[in-house]
Each structure stands twice: as C-alpha cells, then as structure tokens.
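User: Can you model how adenosine-5'-diphosphate sits in this protein?
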Amino acid sequence: MKNKNLLNKSENSKIDWEKIQFEMKNKFGKDIYESWLKKIDFSEEFNDYILLSVSTRFLRDWITSRYLDQILQLVKTFKQEINRIEILIVENSSITNPHLDKNNIEKNSFKNNVSFIKDFVFQYNRIDPNKNFDNFVLGSSNKIAFEASKKVAENGTHYNPLYIYGGVGMGKTHLLNSIGLKLKDTNKVMFISAERFMYQFVKSIKSNDMVKFKEYFRNADVFLIDDVQFMNGKEAMQEEFFHTFNALIDKGSQVIISADRPPNKLNKIQERIKSRFSGGLVIDIQQPDYDLRYKIIKIKTEELKKYYSNNLNISDEIQKFISSEVKNSIRELVGALNRIVSFSRIYNKTPNLSETKVVLKDLLNLSENKVTIDTIQSLVCKFFKISKNEMLSSRRSRYLVRPRQTAIYLTKLLTSKSLPEIGREFSNRDHTTVIHSIKTIENLKKNDPELSSNIDNLKNQILYNNSNEI
Ligand code: ADP
Ligand code: MG
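Assistant: Here's the modeled complex, given as structure tokens:
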C-alpha cells in the first residue's frame, strides 16, 4: 500500500481515532459524518482489527452496510495491519461523551452479561441478512464455489469439510454467510472467524471457561470458520481446533472453511490439519473477470438507484470505466461504486470521467496520476503568479496565504501524504496549520463558485496536465 503512514510515523503506533474522524469527515462529507459517523466510539485496538462501538443496532447495521468498507480502508492508511473492524452495540454509548470510558465498554459488553459465551454468541455469531445466495452475482471465477456452497446449504453433508479459498475481497465471507443464513433457522449454526475463535479460546483459558468453550463449539450442527490462515503458527489454538474439528465431523456436523490459500500452502499449520482440510471438497474463487465486474456494477447501480428513488445517475461510461479499471477485488469494486455514489449525493451532480478518476485515484493504476508535491506547488505558484520561495516563506501576506492554503489543500486531496508530511513539505509547518488550511479552502469552496472552479481547474492541470476541463 502506498500510503502506509498517512498520519502516523511509527509502524507500531496506536490508532488515533480523532484523526480518523477528521479524515472521515473529509472523505464522506460533513452531512454523512454528522449524521452517522460521528456517533461511532473507539473501543479497543488489537493486532489486526479494531473494536468500535455505537449505541444502537440500527446504527451499527446502517454504518456496516454503507460505510464500513471505506472506514476500513481509511483505518488501513493509518495502520496497514488492520484488516477488520467489529462494531459493538453499547447502550448509552455516548453521543454526548465521545471518549467512552474503556472500562465501561468492557463492563457492558463482556462482563455484565450472563456468561461470556452468551455474550459472545450475541456479539460474534452474527449473520448478515444482506449477504445471501440471491445477491451473490455469478461469473466464471466464482460459479463452482457458489454451487458447492448452495449444495451444502441444501443437502447438508455433501462435502465435508467444504474448503473455499481465494484472495481478499473475492466473496468468501459472503458465501459462508449465505450458507449460515440459509441453515440457521433449522440448525445450530456457528459462524466465526479463525481470529475470533483464537480470541475466545485465549479468553476462556484465562477465565477457566474451557469446558463451556468446548461444549459450545462442539454443539454446532454447522460450523463455519472464516480465514483459517490466521491459525498460522498458533500451536495451542491449532490443537484445540483440531479436536473441535474432529468432534464435529464425527458427529456428522457440516464444516465449512475459508482461507486465502489452498490447504497445502498454509504455512505453519500442522500437517494433520491440512490433510483434514483437503479431505472434503477444496474449491477456489478466482479474480473476477471484466464480465463479472461489469455485471456486479450494473446490478449494484440498479439497487442503488432504487434505493435513492431514481435520484441517481451513473452513466454507462462510468460503469464501464469502473469495471475495467478496478480489478483487484469485488470489495474494491463495490467500494469504488459507493464512492461515486457519495460524490454524486454530496455534490448533487453526476460525476464525469475526470471527476471519477479523481475520486477513485487511489484505486486506479493510471500512470498520469503520479502527483508530486513539487508539481502541485509549481502549478499553484504559476496560477497565482507568485514564486515558490514566497509560497514556502513564513510571510503571512494575504496574497501568499491563499495560494499556500490552496496548495496544501490540493496536496491532501491528490496525494497520499499524511498531514505531518505535508506540513514538512511546506517549510515545516505544523499539522494543525495544515488542517486549518484544508478547512479554510473547503469552506471557501462552498461559498465562492469562482474559487471553486479555479481549484477544479488546478486539480485537473495537476492530474492530467490539462488546463481546460471542468
Ligand atoms: P472475502 O471474504 O473473500 O475477503 P467478502 O465476501 O467479504 O470477501 O466480499 C467483499 C465484498 O464484496 C462484500 O461486500 C461482498 O458482499 C461483495 N461480494 C463479493 N463477491 C460478490 C458477488 N459475487 N456478488 C455480489 N457481491 C459480492
Ligand atoms: Mg472474508
């Protein structure tokens, strides 16, 4: 990832939620931020995921379905290792008190409940009704995985275990979730990520609850375990998992596993486990081809149109552009579309192709998008007819301040530099000055159409060396 240290310098640094909130406000716009995202509290940080909290289930579902993928992308720019976000529901989680007391969360969400297992079912055995077989779009890369999943959901132990693997954002969790959803009314379904399994395992050892833990998992009729590559190197957990797995298979329960690689490529996982994984049906989901990507974009666009009562227009040109350029994963693809939708909602217009390129810049590999601070500074100076020395000086004359703020704003918009990095490039200014500049220009843009159009022009010059558009 390009912008590893967007705001933080050290790899091990803790997440600064205030900064993320600031970024969320930038990214989603004030309306969305104030209505929804501001209400999220930060709860806890783990090695590769974070725990957030909100006050109601509705809020959680709304945020999860609309913004979570993008919030995750943002968090990743601060700390690359984070690959998942979980949102707890903590009643009385504060809109009024944004810095929720950590102990309070613990108390509400873990300790006060009848038993941790109960709580754990409540919090983590969540099946998302919005990820089902009906809205899983089929293409040549995922058809076999889909059919096998459906078979398992319809006929039970056809293939046991069913092992589905593929890269990030290919639809593995969606399929596992669909199986769980289909079977949960008639079976005891357990759907858990390997990481969460580990977490519960450690927790139950600490609290002397191993008996409950074992019972709980071995009781399942259908056991879905997501991202088993996470067990890599975790010996004690593998041991426990192996016994759970055997017990489940012995009693005829269905086991479904997902991973980012085939069983034989799992590193540091016991041979006997790998061999059991290979004992059922092993299937992969490959990268989506153009046809599938376009199909997904078309379907999602239609859904969104309906949702916004036809008040949304994303041209076929843009749909094709996204489908041909965002290739890495379906998650990114859907995320790209959501961004375009946010753009058109916030600015109340349909983005054209160059705006689309700007909005999706970090997802695209377009060579012309390599923007340097130097280019930005030079072009902004040229536009305002000042020298670079003047721009970088400490002088605060009005005719210098505005160009400087503009250049800072554009640097934030068009590069992946962190606020402190930007500050440094502008003669060691403090990051609060950088924030102030960005805010000033954002506000001015709203009320001053001429300035807004000048900035758009500059933006295009910088991006495309093209001085006559937008
Ligand atoms: P993985 O678990 O492989 O990393 P996910 O299942 O989380 O990927 O998929 C990422 C996102 O893309 C989810 O929002 C999911 O609903 C969506 N998605 C993936 N594949 C499809 C598909 N074939 N049809 C519709 N949505 C999909
Ligand atoms: Mg997944």
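A couple of observations from the model: The domain at 143-284 is CATH 3.40.50.300 (Rossmann fold). Confidence is low (pLDDT under 50) at residues 1-11, 92-123, 466-470.
User: Helpful, thanks.
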